[in-house]
Amino acid sequence: MTDCKIDSIEFQAHNHKQVVAQFNGGNITSDAGSILLRQTDQRIGLLKRFAACFSDDRNPELIEHTVLDLVSQRTYGICCGYEDLNDHDDLRHDRLLALLVGKADVEGNDRRRESDQGIALAGKSTLNRLELIPQVSGEYHRYHRISYDPLKVDALMANLFLESFETPPEKIVLDLDTTDDPLHGNQEGRFFNGYYDCYCYTPLYVFCGEHLLLSRIQTANVDGAANAVVEIKQIIEKIRQKWPEVKIVVRGDSGFCREELMTWCEANDVFFLLGMGKNERLLKKAKRQISKSKRRYYGNKQPTRRFATFMYRTQKSWSCSRQVVCKAEHLEKGANPRFVVTNLKGDDFVTPQFLYEKIYCARGDMENRIKEQQMDMFADRTSTAVMRSNQLRMYFSAMAYILMQSLRRIGLQGTDFAKAQCGTLRVKLMKIGAQIKITARRILLSLASACPYAKIFYQAWLNLNASLKTAVAVT
After folding, report:
1. Is the alpha carbon torsion for 242, 176, 327, 277 positive or negative?
2. From CA 126, how far away is CA 227, in angstroms rounded?
3. Which of 5, 53, 111, 244 has its CA 20 to 30 A from that of 17?
4. Superfamily for 164-376?
5. pLDDT per residue as tens digits for the range 449-466
């Protein structure tokens, strides 16, 4: 792009009058709706606890931006749609973002260096030193002296999930899935994956409904389920410390149908419901149902489904026989049989059709959650040289998602946006223009009068305010 100073932009005249635009509005923000995220964070205490997962070896006398400031600025920036650190060289002038971060001097008048006065927030270089952390905490690095503990971040994500329930649920379903994160450089851990047909990472996600419990970067040269037992074990142990009686179901597609995972679940009183790849022996066992479905299809020319259940054991990989549910479906294009394996039983099993259609197929909603992570929260911006830094970027995306999801869960309940995706919330609720007026006694945000979602914004504020008062009263 041409690096030049633009004084004014002239557009086509309107009614014999010049139409001229200038970037000289002063204290105006385009993200006024994000003030709701500040209210949400005060309710759940996410950013302070996230910042506590970092260690800071900088000289306290020489810093102006604490770890909490930097973590908050980066997280709020992602929520508002600014995935690149370069954006913050302009955003550091934004008075509203300084308010969200918690800067006492939102105008930046008390900065030490004369060149920084009037700029309250950190620029891209400072934030870059936060993200490009050293490989080992405690090692001397001239510029990179902030590090993080992934175990603490993982524990925080689990705690935020547990705290989101007022009472322990009777049963929860943990969804596991991997996706592709294409790489376009020579990053550490870069491998070609034949299934996705690109060089990529294959991050592992664990969700419970809309709640994100794990966002773990993985190399593409290993099985996507290779670390599933290790990760799910830590999550379930954390859950059972607080909810010892809760029933837990682990759900995943055929990529997670592995003996190690099923054996661990069986040994630890955990249910599983996993897809299975087709093979000749499975098709032979389901032959009768497949034939009946085919005959019924040709009888009425309508898609047909039949369900059956049977015991099955592989010839080598499984240690015991397990219950398999078959969906014998016939469509216009031909037979479409599907199989899932489970250890659900009794009242939890219900019928084969219900188990497949209502319980197993519900895992498809996880695709929407991964879409929010990758597309709306920019979890695929893993372009740093080392995996540890790329994992940190995924954590920032995860925290931004949890903050947005908490706004949706607490603030937007009962509104038209209660089920809206993060990208929709950003466009319709965050991107509100406002003028910022700062006096000795208050900071006044004059929001756009023509905002079509003003009523929903007001309702979100009411819900968050009531929830915050309730939480304080309980405490």
Report:
1. negative
2. 34
3. 5
4. Transposase Inhibitor Protein From Tn5; Chain A, domain 1 (3.90.350.10)
5. 999 999 999 999 999 999
